[in-house]
Amino acid sequence: MKKWIAGLVLLSFMGCLGDDDFPEYNPAEQLEIDIAAIDQHLEEKNLTAVVDEQSGIRYLLLEDGNTTEATDGDVVDVDYELYNFEDELLDTSIESVAQDGGIHDADRDYEPLRFTIGTNGIIPGFQRSAVLLTEGGKGDFYIPSVWCYQNYGSGKIAPNENLRFVIKLVKVNPE
Predict the structure, then answer these.
(1) Is pLDDT above 70 for 10?
(2) 49, 60 in Cβ contact below 8 A?
(3) Which part of the chain is the PPIase FKBP-type domain (predicted)?
(4) What are the φ and ψ backbone dihedral angles of 45, each rounded to 5 degrees?
């Protein structure tokens, strides 16, 4: 009986919510907002970034790689560091970086992330950033929220939060 009443209360509450309670998500508008915020952030840091015209991702090439590029279907191994725009380290695949950043987890295996380019499960901006590098290359990527967690957020990542990834394309394993 209590579960039935709780369900009825929840249904009643949901019925009171109007369409205005959850703003409609417009990725094109959000991308414009994101790019303006990223450009302002880069300007404040006195950084000049390359612009990926396809995605709006801004990046600095930190290390050149060889000539091997990753394409859809390739399995890649990637080391990464994830930061918010306050330079707080949120995640990494590199144990020494986790220790230095105060987020080390003794129960975690720190190793390059392996994934297949073009598949679900990895945020699109991260995948796009990986293919902008060649094997052995490293870059500092400023990724619009629409290519990350969009208006949902995840853990410490707020909805519509732009992210910074430092990515090294360790290995390309062609399909």
Answers:
(1) no
(2) yes
(3) 73-173
(4) -90, 0
Contact 92, 98 (CB under 8 A): yes
In whole angstroms, how far apart are CA 50 and each of 81, 165, 169?
19, 15, 18
Tell me the residue type at 90.
L
Residues in Cβ contact with 155 at an 8 Å cutoff, skipping those fewer than 6 apart: 90
Lookup: tokens for 5: 């009443």
Domains and CATH numbers, the chain: 25-173 (3.10.50.40)
C-alpha distances (whole Å) from 149 to each of 64, 125, 175 are 28, 9, 28
**Digit-coded pLDDT (tens) for 153-174:** 999 999 999 999 999 999 999 8
Q: Which neighbouring-strand residues pair with 154? A: 157
Query: Rg (Cα) of the chain, in Å, rounded?
Result: 19
Secondary structure (3-state) at 42: helix
SS3 3: helix
